[in-house]
Amino acid sequence: MTKSSLKPSPREKLSPEVLALADHLHSATIHLLRRLRKQDACSGEGPARLSALSVLVFGGPKTLGELAATEQVKAPTMSRIVAGLARGRLIEIALDADDARRMQIRASAKGERLLQAARQRRMASLAGQLHRLPMKEFAKLQQAAEVLSRLLVDWR
Amino acid sequence: MTKSSLKPSPREKLSPEVLALADHLHSATIHLLRRLRKQDACSGEGPARLSALSVLVFGGPKTLGELAATEQVKAPTMSRIVAGLARGRLIEIALDADDARRMQIRASAKGERLLQAARQRRMASLAGQLHRLPMKEFAKLQQAAEVLSRLLVDWR
DNA sequence: GAAGTATAGTTAGCTATGCTAACTAATTTC
DNA sequence: GAAATTAGTTAGCATAGCTAACTATACTTC
Question: Which fold has domain A32-153?
Fold first, then answer.
């Protein structure tokens, strides 16, 4: 770091330091998710379906378009993901009373159970590793997770 | 945190705190990579090929089996990825002198250029966001990146 | 050195996930 | 009420993951 500013004033543009952090963060997140992804295999559903289902479980009912936007995917892609989830009885689809074009999609009880089980496996895997960290490093990750969340919210 | 230990002694097993961090980290990394992934579209190559190519560029020549192991993918999958990269002249393949079954795969000059350009786009995107962070938060991410790297190395 | 086993990669064929283009149907706007 | 917009589907393409079954080379064992 060449200059310090404790208030939200940005640093100079794309210094080597910023690029180095971008690189490390990029690499670490890729490898972290690659490890966790393996835990999902035994759920019987692919990553896109699990992710969409988790949006429904934690975010409540959504239309197809809202789901597509949340998952940053085009409508036809989400259409097929929803079809797959419906085929497995993991979601329930109701027509919107106000607008017959819209569909209200919600997780079914079965979908909720499946997602919680999958989530449990991922969390157990990651938590099992975090668990082995010394307190100090654990705290660093806690702070970083908050920073990352804000970064994503403020992304532009 | 219920107990503190500044030395590498692990905490109690899978406390709510550990699970909460696992959850936040999981969510943040997923959404971070989803954003960065978009930058790769204009490279003309998919994520699996870019990732394998980056292994070759930064890790030097590899056999197909080594590439598959590094990318945590089965041999037939890597076989097709390599075929795609070869079709685009992004890699060069030589037969191993000692063992005619093996292939030595290396990035071509064209592959190196393409990967560096793609990497530049990802890094610019992420760095552009990191750039806007106040110094203090930036430093937190730096520390976290180190912790994450160690976590991945020590993963078991 | 021949037979059997192990290893490196390929091929075929399945599923899942992403896209665009072109479509249907419902709603809104003018 | 005609035109434009919006929600979602269908068709068709490419990438990426897998297993099973194959070829070809290398190693082992007698």
Answer: Arc Repressor Mutant, subunit A (1.10.10)
Nearest to B21 by CA among A142, A36, A58, A147: A142
Q: Which fold has domain B39-153?
A: Arc Repressor Mutant, subunit A (1.10.10)
For A73, the token pair is 């995917």
Q: What is the dihedral of CA B107, B109, B113, B116, to 10 degrees?
A: 40
Mind telling me how many Å the CA of B153 is from chain A's nearest CA? 10
Residue in A with minimal Cα distance to B14: A127
CA B81 to chain centre: 16
Q: What is the pLDDT along chain A (156 residues), one digit of tens a residue?
A: 444 434 444 444 568 889 888 888 988 888 888 888 888 888 999 999 999 999 999 999 999 999 999 999 999 999 999 999 999 999 999 999 999 999 999 999 999 999 999 988 888 889 999 999 999 999 999 999 999 999 988 887
Chain D: positions less than 7 Å from a protein CB are: 6-12, 15-21, 24-27
CB contact under 8 A, B10 and A132: yes
- SS3 of residue B100 by DSSP: coil
Which residues are within 8 A (CB) of B101 and not within 5 positions of it... i.e. 6 or more apart?
Answer: none
Contact B123 A19 (CB under 8 A): yes
Chain C positions under 7 Å from a protein CB? 7-13, 16-22, 25-28
- Concatenated DSSP letters of B3-26: S--SSS---STT-HHHHHHHHHHH
Is the CB of A2 inside 8 Å of chain B's CB atoms?
Answer: no
Whether the CB-CB separation of B135 and A12 falls below 8 Å is answered with: no
